[in-house]
Amino acid sequence: TTTKEGVCTLQNRANVCSVKFHPTSAHMLAIGSADHRIHVYDLRQPSTPLMTLQGHREAVSYVHWVGDELVSASTDCQCSFIYPLRS
Length: 87
Known about the structure:
This protein is an all-beta fold. It has no helices and seven strands.
């Protein structure tokens, strides 16, 4: 971002553990959460997640974009979940 002030606030029901912007789309954001999910937002419409991805049994501590796919790691000792970006 280029501003010194907040332009958007996203509320999550559980602790936010990881945040990663998409490498080529500045409006796409992935959030790894303590609710065992990944929430993907389009910041042009931040009121609701574009998608919510499930699969971990514990908090998602790390998310990383690989092209249009997400890799995640969790405190459930599992990693490398790859989710295609589709709504």
